Each structure stands twice: as structure tokens, then as C-alpha cells.
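Database export, one record per block. Field names are fixed; values are copied verbatim from the stored entry.
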Amino acid sequence: MNEQPLIAALSLQRAGAPRVGGDRIRLLEAIARHGTIAGAAREVGLSYKTAWDAVGTLNNLFEQPLVEAAPGGRTGGNARVTEAGQALIAGFGLLEGALTKALGVLEGGVSAPEKALNTLWSLTMRTSNRNTLRCTVTRVTLGAVNAEVELALTDGHSLTAVITERSATEMGLAPGVEVFALIKASFVMLAAGGDPGRISACNRLTGIVAARTDGPVNTEIILDLGNCKSITAVITHTSADALGLAPGVPATALFKASHVILAMP
């Protein structure tokens, strides 16, 4: 008989979106204590960049921002956990307590088959997609094969996705329905400033460069869209230099409607 106790590992996830687990809740709690992402990152054992990226993912995942922060490098930049973030921390704690009680009952005499447990753990599966944006459908135009779906992201920002007509029908897409828009960072093109001129990509999100991370070949750019929303692009290092992209510089993210994948909660 296995004497090792069951350990609860609570994870919350909407379909197609990154999970929110105890590690992210601990990060939120640390931000609330320290008032900076850098201090919180040190406490929970993350790099500053990983913690900053996690905050961006959380803010994109929820309707209201969980953290309001200003980039300030590894030693600066204030951060504040919002009321929505505090509510998530409290709610997650209640769920963890309930799960612990349920596990106590499970250990009392019920032995779940290994395959059943594996099925449960699969619910916490992560996605490699870099950009997951919570949106609201504003219009659906159905065609014979494809459907054009218009989405509201934030005040002043909207997206368009082109998916199959069958997918739009099966998902029940209609104005007011909440969805998640998934866009690979490598699909996002960047233009300096707010007017990219004539281009066929119908999705144009203008913001301010919040962070730049250079690699030997590629550069990751995080664009602040306002209202604590952001989008990430991976472009060549040469292109980033040619465009003069640096924190504080305005830029526009461009991507095709066909590169937007939609997922529902």
C-alpha cells in the first residue's frame, strides 16, 4: 500500500488559454508584499523576465487587469495587485482548501485508477502559444466556406479572425460571446510608429514598446497596448535595430486574420 499522501495541485484553465496554478498565485501574493515585480521574482525564485512575462499573460487572460505595473528593469518599477487580483488570490485559496478536504475523503478509502488520474492531470495542459488575448465577439459574417469574426479587445483596439464557417457555427459565435484569440509571436510583424501605411494585414494594434530581449539572431518585443494588455512579437535582431525598437518607442503590431485562432472558455 502506498503510504505517500496525495498532494493537491490546483490549476485553473479556460479552453485554449494558459493555466493559472499555485505558482502564479504565489507570484501575485509576492507582488502584493513587495510592491515590485523584481522583488516578487526573487522571492519565488523566478528571473525578472519570467515574472514580467507571467504578469503580462495573467493580465491578458482576465477581463480586468490583475497587476498594474511599470517596467523598470531588474531593480525598479512599481507594481500593484488590483482588486481583481486580490479577489483571484482569495478565491484560489478557498478552492485549495476545498480540494484539500476532498483529497482527504479520497484517501479515506477510494483509490483512483492511474489512467483516471492521468486524465485529470491533462486538464492542466499548457499551450506554447505566446499571445492569448481575451476578447468579446462584436460581429460574425458567415460565408460559404469561411467566417469573419470581429472582436473587441480593449477600448480602441479590435481584432479580426477568419475561421471556417463550420467552426464559427459549432462554437456558437455571436455578438457578446467571450473568446480567446491566440496568435503566435512569430506571426506578429512590427512597424515603427502608429501608421504602417498600406498593408494587407487587417489586424493593427498600436502601442508602446514595454520590453526588448535580444538573442543572437532573434529579438522578442513586448508591446504595451494599454489597459494592462500586451502583445509579443519575435522578429530578427537586425529588423529590431533597423526599426529603432526600444522601451518607450511607439510601434504597431501587424498580423493576418487567418493567423488568429479562436478558443472558447
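Remark 1: The chain has three domains: 12-70+77-103, 135-182, 185-257.
Remark 2: The CA atoms of residues 88 and 94 lie 10 Å apart.
End of record.
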